[in-house]
Structures are given as structure tokens and as C-alpha cells.
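Q: Hi! First time doing this. I have a protein sequence and I read that you can turn it into a structure. Is that right? Here it is:
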Amino acid sequence: MTDLPAKGDAITFRKTMTVAEQGFFTGITGNMTKTHVDRAHAKDAGLADMSVFELAAAGLLTTALGRLAGPAWRIGDFSVAFGRAIPVGSSIAATATVTEASSEAIVCDLSIAVEGDEAITGTARMVPLGA
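A: Yes, that's right. Below is the predicted 3D structure, encoded as C-alpha cells:
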């Protein structure tokens, strides 16, 4: 087993979610919810633009988790709460922060911020790849 991260260690992965990525996610999931795929409908609903797919945004946290824990670990548990819609074109900062680390599990707090405002929070537990 490689070195464990320490309590308080954190990694932030930053990405701007584009219209093209919305299209890819629609193709993968088949999700055609109008606020995600129809700009006029989203604006009529009071949003600034189409809303980034919630799970696409939360998926950015998996990059932070993987970089923090390393290749010998996988996600065992993952729980997130979505505080608000995120407009397409937003720059997202997905952060995983270690709260506990042992050879059995690495537990992290999760946060996604958009322009400094928290939009998604949660927790994850990484387990050894073979577990």
C-alpha cells in the first residue's frame, strides 16, 4: 500500500462545464430534462442558463478523490447534496478533503464551489481497490 494522505490533505480539481459536455452527458444518460437541454426553457424557469447535470458536476469530485487517494483506492461510499443549480459555462472547483485515513478507508468531505459559493456538499469513503 502506498503512503496514505493525512487528515487535512485536500485536492481541488477545476473545470468549466461547457455546452458540448452537456451534449455528451445527455448522450450517455438519455436525460432530456428541459432545464438541462433547452436554454429558453431554463431561462423561463428563472435560471441564468441551462443547468449543468447534477451528477456531471458531482462527477468532478471523483477526479479529486482519485488524485488524493491514488490508484490503489476506489470509491466505497459517495453521498452528495445539491444546494442549487449550476449554470452551464460555470467554472467549478471540486474539492476533496481528508477527515480520516487508515489502511482500511480514507474518508473525505466533499465540496463544489461555483465562483466561491458552495453549490454541492458531501462525503466519500475510499476503500482499497481489492476490497
